[in-house]
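User: Predict the complex.
Assistant: Input components as received:
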Amino acid sequence: MNAAIEVRNLIKRYAKSPVNAVDNISFSVKEGEFFAFLGPNGAGKTTAISVLTTTLAKTSGEVQVAGYDIATQAAQVRQNIGIIFQNPSLDKNLTAEENIRFHAVLYGLYPFSPFFSWMPNEYKQKVKELSELIGISDALDKPVKTFSGGMKRKLEIVRSLLHNPKVLFLDEPTTGLDPASRKSLWEYILQVRKTQGTTIFLTTHYLDEAEGADRVVVINKGKIIADGTPQALKRELTKNFMRVTPKTLSKFVKELQSLGIEYSVEGIHVNIPIKNAGVDVQKLLKTIESELVDIDIHSPSLNDAYIQLITTEHE
Amino acid sequence: MNRLRTRLSVIATIAYRDVMKFLRDRMRIIFSFVFPVMFVGVLGGGLQSSLGAASGKDLLTMTFLGVLAQTLFQSTASGIISLINDRENDFSQEIFVSPTSRYAIIFGKIVGESTISFLQVVGILIFGAVIGIKITLVGLLAIFPAMVAAALLGGAFGILVLGNLNNERTANQIFPFLVMPQLFLSGVFVPLAGTSGLLLTLAKFMPLTYAVDLMRGMYFLNDVNAQKDLLHSPLVNALVIAAMFTVFLTIGTILFVKKEKER
């Protein structure tokens, strides 16, 4: 009932293409949820986001966004979503305020006026508040081309929130930003989420950004190949293991074989899967007699889980 | 706000944005004058001294009027066609996902690009005055409706092309083939009267032909001698342009709106 996004059996095949870019996917996103859509390049992420944001017609399936059908109620869907595109969507030669003003008029919030000073007071007040929030109040009348990458992204987000969208789509929003800008952009997005309860639909390459999500869906070659919380995905997809470097590899392998312990060799290292880190490691070390040079215990990150998922899928 | 006011606001915004983008792009302003200046200064001047002087005609003014029509037509047309690469660039992405009507986008674009072509024309008129082409004030008032017609026809033509194109690469490859023949077959440089056979038939298929002819017809409204060089009366030209404008705009808009989503 309270789904912000509901996708059922969505298929998108581009004209002249022999394969489906999005191949029969279904998922739903709850209101207020932080939802991450992951996948390698060409997996179908941007295609899916284009269909969800009504800029691309679906081939078949059913999609509702913010409670409206994307095919029959496109205008209502558009009125209720905000989008941060993969490519910058600001006019570089126009000022920050002009970029905001044109957005406001396009969404029917205020009538058009060629000058900031002629705009309604309510608008002027709002722009001032927002620009203070992201720290550009001094640069409102400067052309956007003078802004840094991080500032531009923040400006786009401020602009996309002007019409109070229920769902905010972010298509790889931090691509090309330096780590400091990425961090501060994320702080801002999470703050918006907290104060406005906006549902967030994120696509990203950076796995650490999805680690904070409520739910992750991984897509590859147009199909969903994993769906769950980041923690569940990690548990499901990767195992903890102990990486041991023995003094003599052949002798150590022979000993493991005689003890019946599962292992795999990787160069001069031997990987031994373990279930619960502390206890298993201690047990194992007690039984082994071969001389060891180094021991390392690996806990997977979401990144590891993701890479494993994508590579298994390719094999 | 009521619906109509919102629509008008959107059209004004899209047009204003186009004009502002043009005015703040110095390179684009400079380049938009290169061709007209070349055509008028070099070609028109050359024609006048070789042919015009001998025939006793004012070929320089003829060419100048032709270039005015051509600039208005082509600048508006190419501005509209640029919508195709806009979809993935800058603020246009925002325009396409906004809840506004596609028709409002197209109308805004036509108004904006026409205004830009008029700004270019102001520059060309000044250049003409500098090199000694005397356009009278009465003449200027007389050709004003013809200039509006040329720009609007170019806009409708641009939308027709836009509705039939799939991507930017096709647009860049096809555009010269749509523009060059019009440039040479529409009598921009030399009036078409006296042309016959295949060339005349081809010329009659070029939308720009009628815009050029209307422009000259309006300017030489009281000059019987110059009127001999024209194809049709201004009224016939105006009717043909109105008909083409309506057909191009309707078909182009329908195709564009349909194609915009169904990729």
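Residues 3-261 of chain B form one domain.
Let me know if you want any component modeled separately.
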